[in-house]
Design goal:
Enzyme class (chains A, B): ligase
Number of strands of chain A: 31
EC number (chains A, B): 6.1.1.15
Radius of gyration of chain A: 30 Å
Largest interface: A-B, 63 and 63 residues
InterPro entries (chains A, B): aa-tRNA-synt_IIb, aa-tRNA-synth_II, aa-tRNA-synth_II/BPL/LPL, Anticodon-bd, Anticodon-bd_dom_sf, Pro-tRNA-ligase_IIa, Pro-tRNA-synth_IIa_bac-type, Pro-tRNA-Synthase_IIa_type1
Helix content of chain A: 25-40%
Number of helices of chain A: 15
Oligomer: homodimer
GO molecular function (chains A, B): aminoacyl-tRNA deacylase activity; ATP binding; catalytic activity, acting on a protein; proline-tRNA ligase activity; transferase activity
CATH class of the largest domain in chain A: Alpha Beta
Shape of chain A: globular
GO cellular component, one term (chains A, B): cytosol
Number of domains of chain A: 3
Largest sheet of chain A: 9 strands, mixed
Chain lengths: 569, 569
């Protein structure tokens, strides 16, 4: 492609963009904003998008998923059937047609695909079936920002699988999981498959694929030594089983701590560490109050408490409930001398503590030298806190660290969530009617493009992995007005094209500085420069990532190419 | 692909579908309707769609058009700028986002692309630029019908070119025109490029590409001998220049023709041919009345009259105007004895007539034996009628016939229609500000799929051209319960895949009749059947289009394949 007539308007600065990917994709002329969260892909940006799509398509086809294309306009009735017309909230874009019929602009296609299958597939013999599509999706984000990382119209790959039994779903899930590993590896992404909470279906039934990046909105707990990764809510905290050392604990003492409510305030006031203070939190689990104790330096994990109690709803108690149960306002709660009998759950770390500080259940007072069993009873010891940096990896015993992540994919066992309410059923082997068992599998295609940029750039611009680079080689003629340079560059251009290499030829009548700056922004993996030594048949190459380059005689280029290209992989 | 788990639900009858393409695509399980005019592409249908897209993409890339992807959500303000928010009418689908901002769902992208370019390209040096995209479009048809031929959400390729001068536009237009010829030829379509009216830009500045088919909504006038084709409005009627033969014409006579108003009624009442009667029509051209005369067996062409008069608006006169000018109600108009002086335009064929019948400008009366010049004056003789079957081809002198056509593409010189109102300008070579000169070029991708089916089917199903067939070979194992057949079929399947051939393997435990019926519906070009002679290593092949087939020894298949595949081209 000749750059002279390519629409690739570069910018030297972009005021409004915060994220690096947003900045660089704008600067390099890969995208332009049409409205908040709504972007046009310009030629270079489209090329990358298309390459990502192609990799996704190849890996989907490889596991036998069948490509379809479902409409963006969904009759509202389908979303009413599943209750999501209400529950999806204001992110759901809606419209009426000329006859006043209501439609939803598809943000996802569970309703439409279940509707399709329920009409067409009614026997276990035809299952499993896996279908996917690559398509623009619509989600009316309240504050779209971050460029392609969170848009209102964006490109998704969504897939759905249908099964007659759980084992078949498990098998397909494993195939998708592996395909996702392949896809994100081929995209050159540093990512982790993260265990995530899937509600009713249990622990290993959903994974989020996270591109590791400071630009991410999610926090991932991951192991420094092994592949373990989990979102914080899900990560199990390892307990070494060590009992507390039986030391001599002074007798319990009440002390005035006027106005000192937070752990930090209390610790500072008493000149002790936060880990010597116990945080007491009163929850209402399905109408029953429960007091949960964690160490002052730990964070509570409500999901774990909810799962521990098997509760369907769990909420922090309101102030009136706190006073009714504990006799004091929050900030002064503790397990000693409660007004009402209430179940006390302690985190493992609390059970290991000696000589703790707790609230006195009396405004402006705490208790020092508290020792459980001696001064109060714990009803249940359990893992109820969030994992922290430095904790032990539940998989290998290594050390946990935190990282920010961008969710670029998820695989999810839906079960019968949709098939039941929509009467999507089959006759099973015994002639019995059963709802389909379903899985769903998403990849944010345009978000993946931005994630690649977040991970692959330097201060001068983007550095595309070869697999998704818009072109493999950026051929720059330094001075097109110099006839020798222009004709040597033309010769190289023709030669590279003959070799079947995707090459962008900067044939613009621009100054060298502009050309190199634009070239760095574009991030094409290999640059070939035709400059002042063109007359002697000398050209130069440079690897965008490593910066490694050299001069080369024109007649050696063809021979050198395979090695140069290999280095880009 | 193994058919057992493919989503390809065939139907034996479809009540609601009228068009053959609609019927067959439903029956063969290529598409399903989600809502009126809104379709899902199932795996086989998607494969065809994708192949059509790929052909379009290849030909667009070949002429240097750059692929982009513009949003479907357009801020309404852009459509207000061009006045199309109103003028587009109720086919424009509209919605509001959560903040009450108004959006249009793009049916076409002139506004968005002009908005993009006006921000980015401001010098003639960067032009010409041609951009295209392949994308779902939205148009709220009042009565969506005919399946993919006229939907509300459909796949389009739209392209836009930007130029600094007219010559550059002409050049690009020619490239697109040729690319369209290539595309539709590769799709296996019988089509014509038809001259169409482009309003202000003149005669050869817009072409519609019509797939010839009885299912079409348009009528095309085309030559039996040459490539000439035109929509009826545009086709020039050739006049041999022959003067009327000077025969003795009896004296003009008024006769009562009570209640006989139409040409047919008058001709029948007087027992003469329609071509002996003159049809007189009063038009109001920009407030000025004009009487137009055409032969009774001809159809009036308002576009020609409008162009002839250089009028901006032309309409048939209302009854009150007719009476004011002619003194009689319509049905009895004529050029003799008009109440008011009015310009009289006659079609060439009228100027050639002798002894005509015209209205008497008196209710229930006509005049016989009328001779122009003797009885009334013609102010201007011109081509003001529609071309007809049997007329002379304006290009080669051959014979015109009519055909129905489906519009599958158009190329259009927009000129400055959008750039002027949207201030899309460049500095030209002289440093002067000029609006872009634009072209636009569309292809209905999903409509092309349906058009192919309209042209390629028989009573048993679709017959895909090899270029867009979902698979090249349909391998049918007649009886999968027979182990020999199953294993021979499996062997053939593996072999064909190894050869890189796209093959669909019917491995379903269905009866032979079902398999062959489904196979005919699918329309895959070559069938290979593994049946009862599998034990002897004998299989069969059959060309879906020609019906030609034969038995073949397994070990000869590999050698025979190249020839068999060549026949499918």
């Amino acid at each position: 492609m000749r750059q002279k007539h390519m629409l690739s308007p570069t910018l030297r600065s972009v005021a409004e963009a915060e994220m690096m990917s947003h900045q660089l994709l704008l600067k390099a002329g890969f995208i332009r904003q049409l409205a908040a969260g709504i972007y046009s892909f310009l030629p270079l940006g489209f090329k990358v998008l298309h390459k990502v799509e192609t990799i996704v398509r190849e890996e989907m086809d490889k596991i036998g998923a069948q490509e379809v294309l479902l409409p963006s306009l969904h009759p509202s009735e389908l979303w009413e059937e599943t209750g999501r017309k209400k529950s999806y909230g204001p992110e759901l874009m809606q419209l009426q047609d000329r006859h006043g019929r209501e439609f939803v602009l598809g943000p996802t296609h569970e309703e439409v695909i279940t509707d399709l299958l329920r009409d067409e597939v009614n026997s276990y013999k035809k299952l499993p079936i896996s279908l996917y599509q690559i398509q623009s999706k619509f989600r009316d984000e309240r504050r779209p920002r971050s460029g392609l990382l969170r848009g209102r119209e964006f490109m998704m790959k969504d897939a759905y699988s249908f099964h007659a039994n759980r084992a078949s779903l498990d098998e397909q899930y494993a195939l998708f999981y592996q395909a996702y590993q392949n896809i994100f590896s081929r995209l050159g992404l540093d990512f982790r498959a993260v265990e995530a909470d899937s509600g009713a279906m249990g622990g290993t039934d959903t994974h989020e694929f996270m591109a590791l990046s400071e630009a991410g909105e999610d926090t991932v707990a991951m192991c420094l030594s092994c592949e373990y990764a989990s979102n914080i809510e899900m990560a199990k905290v390892m307990h070494d089983g060590g009992q507390r050392t039986q030391i001599e604990v002074p007798v319990l003492t009440e002390i005035e701590t006027k106005g000192q409510k937070t752990i930090a305030e209390v610790a500072s006031f008493l000149d002790i560490q936060a880990e010597q203070v116990v945080k007491s939190l009163l929850f209402i689990a399905d109408d029953t109050p429960v007091l949960v104790l964690i160490r002052g330096d730990h964070d509570i994990n409500e999901v774990k408490i909810k799962n521990l109690l098997g509760a369907s709803v769990i909420e922090l108690a309101e102030e009136s409930q706190v006073i009714a149960v504990c006799g004091a306002p929050s900030g002064y709660l503790g397990p000693v001398g409660l007004k009402k009998q209430v179940k006390v759950i302690a985190d493992h770390a609390v059970a290991d503590m000696n000589d703790m500080v707790v609230g006195a259940n009396k405004k402006d007072y705490h208790l020092r030298h508290v020792q459980h069993t001696r001064d109060f009873e714990i009803d249940e010891v359990a893992d109820v806190r969030n994992i922290q940096t430095g904790d032990t990896c539940p998989s290998c015993g290594g050390q946990i660290q935190f990282s920010r992540g961008i969710e670029i994919g998820h695989v999810f066992k839906l079960g019968t969530r949709y098939s039941e309410v929509m009467s999507g059923t089959i006759l099973d082997e015994n002639g019995k009617t059963q709802p389909y068992i379903m899985g769903c599998y998403g990849i944010g295609i345009s978000r993946a493009v931005a994630s690649i940029v977040e991970q692959h750039h330097d201060e001068n611009g983007i550095i595309w992995p070869a697999s998704v680079a818009p072109y493999a080689i950026h051929l720059i003629a330094v001075n097109m007005k110099n006839e020798t340079q222009a004709s040597v560059a033309e010769e190289v251009y023709q030669m590279l094209q003959k070799e079947g290499i995707e090459v962008l030829f900067d044939d613009r009548p621009e100054r060298a500085g502009v050309k190199f700056k634009d070239g760095d922004l574009f991030g094409i993996p290999l640059r070939i420069t035709v400059g002042s030594k063109a007359g002697e048949g000398i050209i130069e190459y440079k690897n965008r990532r490593s910066g490694v380059g050299d001069a080369l005689h024109l007649q050696d280029l063809s021979k050198a190419l395979p090695d140069l290209m290999k280095e880009l992989m």
